[in-house]
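Hypothesis: this fold can be encoded by more than one sequence.
Test: take the structure tokens below, design a sequence, compare later.
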């Protein structure tokens, strides 16, 4: 039970301290609200859930990498910057994939509803 509690503490810490984590969570809630409104299929919901899970997981890893790098050095060092930038890039790539997927799933339905 302790590992589960420690993991939850880490997630809550990221939510409290990382603005991007809160943005991703709000985006996830909006995605699922739109999915309910547009009555997406079970398979589409699973695909959306997979993308949301990936983005949030990568954001947690990005936070962990930032903390680890900051623990090692507070100086501006090219390798420290690269580690942080690459981790942030992973989140960006997944976020773009999630957005494109949402557009593919929601786009035709939104088009039909709005026009």
């Amino acid at each position: 039970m302790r590992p589960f509690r420690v993991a939850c503490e880490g997630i809550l810490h990221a939510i409290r301290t990382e603005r991007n984590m809160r943005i991703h969570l709000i985006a996830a809630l909006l995605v699922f609200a739109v999915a309910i409104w547009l009555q997406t299929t079970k398979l589409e919901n699973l695909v959306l859930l997979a993308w949301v899970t990936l983005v949030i997981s990568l954001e947690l890893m990005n936070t962990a990498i930032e903390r680890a790098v900051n623990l090692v050095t507070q100086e501006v060092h090219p390798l420290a910057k690269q580690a942080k930038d690459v981790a942030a890039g992973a989140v960006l790539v997944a976020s773009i994939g999630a957005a494109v997927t949402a557009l593919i799933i929601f786009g035709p339905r939104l088009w039909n509803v709005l026009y």
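Residues 78-114 form the longest helix (37 residues). The chain has one domain: 2-114.
Hypothesis status: open.
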